[in-house]
Each structure stands twice: as C-alpha cells, then as structure tokens.
C-alpha cells in the first residue's frame, strides 16, 4: 500500500510543480511526446526541485524557432528573479546574449578573451570580434546574392502536389546555382520534405523530377546514386559514426571509388578526404574519432562528405546548428561556393536572419503545405517572413528575376 501511496504523492507533487511554473503538461504525459521547449523546462524544474542554486544551460535554444526560444529564455529570466538563483547560458546566438543576459564572457580556445556587463554599453560587434579573434569585424554575413535566372534555364528540382503522411500539398522549383531557403514554424513540414526527397520517408502521391527526369528514392543509398546529398539536423544522432575517424566519415558514401576487388585503399581514401577538408579550414586531428572535434568542425567534415559525393542537389537541414560565429562564416562560404559551382542547394533553418542572408529565394511551409509564388526579395524582413508563416503559408518569397 505504501507503494501506491507514494505513487499518489509523487503525482500530486509533480502536478504542483508544473502548476507553479505555468507549464501546461499533465503529470501522466510521456516526456517523448512533449515539445522541445517543454522538455527544456522540465529539466529546469527538476533541478529547481532539488534546490539548485546555479543552473547551466548548454545551447538551450538550438533546436527552437525564434518565438519558442524567446518564450523559454523569458521563463528562465523570470525564474532567476523569483528564485534568486544563478543561470549560466552557453550559446552562440549573440542576439540572445544581449537581450537576456546580465553579464557576458567570451571563451576562445579555453581562454577568457572578453568579459563585460550588459549595462556597460556592450556592442554586438565587440562580442563577435572577441569570438572570432578579429579587431574589427562586421556582423556575420555572406556575399550579397542576386540570383538571375535566364529564361532558358531549366529547374533542377520540380515538385508538384507532393503528399506524404506529414505533407499535404507541396509545390516548388529549385534551380542550379541557386540557394532555396525553406521557412516555416516548427512542425510545418520543412524537414519532412527534405527527408522525403532523400528517401527516408515514403511518398503517397505527387510528381518529383530531377534534371528533367522523373525522380523517386526508396532509400538514402538510392538518393545518393541519383545525385542527392543530405545534411541532417541531428548530426550526432544521424550524421556520422562517432567512433570512426573524421577522414573515414567523409568518404563513407563513396568508398566504392577506392575499392580494388574486395579491399579499400585506405591511403587513397584518406588522401582524398584530407584534400577535401583542407578547402575550408577544418581543425582537429583528422585521423581521430570525429566525436573528438568541436561542433563546428564536425559540421565542416559533413560538408566535406557532401563535396566528396559531387551531388547536384544538396539538402541542408539546420546547417549551422550549434556552431559558433567563426565556423558559421566558413560554412556560409562553403554553401555559397557550392551554389557558384552550379549545384542546387536547399537550406532549412530556424534562424531567420541567416535565411535572409544566404537564400536567393525562400519557400514558406505551413501545416505541411507549400505552394510556390515568386515575390521580389528586395524589402523582405524577418517580420514579413513570420507573417507569411503564420498566414496561409502558401507563398514563396525571393529575389528570382527573369532576363
């Protein structure tokens, strides 16, 4: 009977905690079914219930779209004031630091290179300068893009009335030499679309063509053979084999190039991977396990894999997730370089400013649907992006022009 009594007491205690922190979750809910912000708050509540005086949050908003991130940090700030506890937030998002933190410390290479309180008139560029080690720097950006489509340029990817379990009606076109951004709120279908093209999810109906020919892929292996590459959002779970070396992870999809009979020529494969990674300043021991690298260098290694594949359609899901500003700049240049080579690049990101910087056109996903219309990108703003995503969601915005 005591077991039953404790079960009841635990349920009541959990309900009281959830109510105290205004979290609309049932004590009986499975954590796996909760949204990411709710999971984050559950972790914080657990530690507060243990009378924690300091809480360390490591990249708490990485997987959140902007509105959810702002809600989470606002809740954390409220708790700091009410409970009089200390919170340390580790983040690469400078705007969040300036808006929500009382003090800023910049660590580079394990050394404190900058420390200041927000009231001391800290400048955003001062923080960025300290992070990337430059004395003067503008905000992270890429070369301004004005993608001009010639009238006779055929699209590389055409999607018509695509439907899957989670997609209702997707229509879009993507062109060689172009970066097409996909924008939408969490659950809008952007990532599911990429997974479908890569053969990770089944198509129910609709037509897809690649390079003018009908396209379908029942598996990633088939997608790779047909010239499609995919960078997953969850690189640590789905992107690489942690114990395998950086170099071997890079050549994994193209090992057949280095085979002779039944054996792989390791020296040739590693030499090729080293040359690929040298193009964009990958740091770390390349013959060591990839899990030993920083997040930014792990991401560069995965970009090296894409370049090694020589894919013509490249799907990038959150390509700078968990990456510091210096590595972001390198990744932006890699993405832009792939487009300049004539590849077709599709980018999914929750970072709106990033999308506005790097995308030539932006397709809006809403509730699993996307219907392409082309608008000029000249005066496109974050506010307009959000408005489109919260509206009917059936519009693409971009700076595509016809000559």
Topology:
Elements: H1 2-20, H2 36-49, E1 54-58, H3 66-83, E2 86-90, H4 94-100, E3 103-108, E4 111-117, H5 124-132, E5 148-149, E6 157-163, E7 169-174, E8 179-183, H6 190-197, E9 205-210, E10 213-214, H7 220-225, E11 228-231, H8 235-239, H9 246-251, E12 259-260, E13 263-264, H10 266-277, H11 295-309, E14 313-317, H12 325-340, E15 344-348, H13 352-358, E16 361-364, E17 369-371, H14 382-390, E18 396-398, E19 401-402
Parallel strand pairs: 1-2, 5-19, 7-17, 8-15, 8-16, 11-14, 14-15
Antiparallel strand pairs: 3-4, 6-7, 6-9, 9-10, 12-13, 16-18
Helix pairs in contact: 2-3, 10-11, 11-12
List keywords for this structure.
alpha/beta, 14 helices, 19 strands
Structure description:
There is one protein chain. With 403 residues, the protein is an alpha/beta fold. Helices cover 37% and strands 20% of the residues. It has a six-stranded mixed β-sheet, sandwiched between helices. A five-stranded mixed β-sheet has the order 10-9-6-7-17, with no helix packed on it. Strands 1-2 form a two-stranded parallel ribbon. Strand 12 and strand 13 (263-264) form a beta hairpin. Helix 10 (266-277) packs across helix 11 and helix 11 runs parallel beside helix 12 (325-340). The longest helix is centred in the first third of the chain and has 19 residues, at 2-20. The radius of gyration is 23 Å and the shape is globular.
